[in-house]
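User: Need the bound-state model for iron/sulfur cluster:
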Amino acid sequence: MNFEATFKPMYVGSMLVKNRLVVPAMDSHMPDENGMIGEDALNYYGARARGGFGMIIVEIAAVQKSGIGMPHEINIYDDTSIPGLTALASRIKHYGSRAVIQLHHAGRETVAAMAGQQPVAPSSVPCPTNRETPHEMTTLEVYELIQDYIDASVRAQKAGFDAVEIHAAHGYMGGQFLSPRSNRRIDEFGGSIEGRAYFLKLIVEGIKAACGKDYPVIVRISTDESRIGGIQLNESIIHAQLLEAYGYDAIHLSAGTYGAWDTIVPPPDAQQGWNLSATKVIKSAVTIPVIAVGRYTDPYFINLAITRGDTDFISLGRQSIADPDFPNKMFSGELMDIVPCLSCTQRCMSFNDPSTLQEGDYGVSCLLNPMSNDRPDVRLNTAAQPKKVMVIGAGPAGLEAAWVAAKRGHTVTLYEKGPKSRAGGQFLIAAYPPFKQDLTRAIRYYLNMCEKYGVEMVFEKEVDAAFIAEKKPDVVIVATGATPLKPAIPGISGENVKQAINVLLGEPVKGNVLVIGGGLVGVETAEYCTDYCNKVTIVEMKPEIASELYLTVRDSLLRRFKHEEIEVHTNTRVIEIAENGIVCEENGVQKVLDGYDSIILALGAKAYNPFEQLNDLAPEVYTIGDAKQARSALEAIYEGFRIAQAI
Ligand SMILES: Cc1cc2nc3c(=O)[nH]c(=O)nc-3n(C[C@H](O)[C@H](O)[C@H](O)COP(=O)(O)OP(=O)(O)OC[C@H]3O[C@@H](n4cnc5c(N)ncnc54)[C@H](O)[C@@H]3O)c2cc1C
Ligand SMILES: Cc1cc2nc3c(=O)[nH]c(=O)nc-3n(C[C@H](O)[C@H](O)[C@H](O)COP(=O)(O)O)c2cc1C
Ligand code: SF4
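Assistant: Bound-state model below.
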């Protein structure tokens, strides 16, 4: 399949774009803390341009200092930014991509500490997430803000950007004007649907007057924000028609606002192209190109949507973070080489969170691709001295270490005690709960990379110290994973008690089940059980369940839990397991939860390392991933990468 439709050039206004694949704006933390462009941002965006994207929309750039909504947000509010922006546009265009920059003002979707003053907004309605009451702009202040968008566009054009995109989605300033939920003005900027769109009308007219009528201006809107009572599809169709009439050259159709984050960044339970039906409706109502977005990761699906004419362009958000070379791989048919995006948001949205970052790591990156952001320290070189490397364990840590080491020129053998069909370690078990099946794509990707770079993979071989001594490797990488914890709770060895991973692997449970432990494994096992059990209950010692899950993924899981009527007891400590239930202490009060046929344990895991005298095994020995300390695939993959890069 040649994916012809995807690679057919198309115009946005006067700008010819070489294909239909777009990197949408995504704040990356790669600009510096003052919002200036340096080498990190050039490398990050350069990698995506080199990877073949037709259009790259550079992340949010603040048109006013007081409109900053994110740390490291790009400065386009004064001329000091122009040299850095010039270098950025030039780096993107060097590879034949179109360079676009997103003009942004957070409005009420920020906090005073970030904005440096009380946030401003069309009306003084607090943001549903930040809860700070904004200052309602006077009519004069609105006109001044419009001028700031125009001045920012002039800077973008001077810097060499081919176009600008006005951010009016996700409930930011443009969207706050459009939405009757946040715009209660009675001057010319409110009142009616046209009044609410007047802000965006004056912006595009001003930009065209200042930059030339042929300078392309894209607008990004949300098709739907109904979950928080805002714009609905019928209204956004009219917005799209008005915006076309006002002079915008293309419409980028996202969804959601703060307060409904999981419609902005769809979680794993969203289907491929989940917003495409709304996009089709809007496309049929306008004549300018539309850009679809929202969980596009599959080349076949992408090409079909474009071939059918459901959309003109498709933005690959997190998929472009996972794999900057997606377009080139799609074009050349190397589909197995594509790093799949799992929608997990585990690393790409956690660039602020030191607890998720490995030492020296910073900026946006991907769970499955530690090289995603193309910082110099995550690039690969050829090994100075090729070595004989033995990797023990084909979980994510071992698989990543093996292919990266082999790519660098080492001779790598990977041993796994299970069969090839069970490659992936715990990550394969992690693919069993609902909405996690994409994890198998990741495992397939890793196996493919191992094959591609010549890793010898030996399955059904449990390695012991004698075997290592016999093989005499230069380097041993121990990636033997973890085993589930079984603490000394009375009754824990009863026949009615099962480990969560065994349940996921098929050990039967039925009737009513109670899961002890409301962490990731516990909540996912509980949801898995709802398919064939009558009643599912979780008890968790902490005040919250699923506390390690990221915002969007957690929100959607908790929403499903409500539908599935899973009973949750937090602040609850198990004292004893009985034949048909447990004795526990909930919020300090002792009680019995009974009527359960099975009790499932999801109480965490402990490192499994079967080798006692590690340093005697080979000249170089490293322990990585859960074998070092039971954590998540993120640490496992990043440690695998770092060791393979260092040896
Ligand atoms: C239900 C569930 C859901 C999860 N969901 C997520 C998630 O969404 N995101 C996330 O980041 N993490 C998740 N995790 C955790 C994640 O799967 C683990 O942290 C990760 O797999 C650890 O990787 P690893 O390679 O270190 O070890 P493992 O994945 O445990 O792999 C170790 C491998 O070593 C093999 N092995 C052991 N001893 C030997 C030996 N002597 N010789 C040869 N082979 C040996 C084992 O058979 C196994 O295949 C989940 C875990 C579970 C159980
Ligand atoms: C890390 C991250 C940062 C984002 N920042 C922005 C942004 O600056 N501007 C914007 O309009 N959308 C932003 N988004 C939303 C994306 O542009 C995109 O619409 C969303 O991720 C859904 O697409 P996907 O499912 O392909 O990831 C961001 C998303 C992510 C994951
Ligand atoms: S961290 Fe997860 S959601 Fe983010 S790009 Fe990687 S696979 Fe996709």
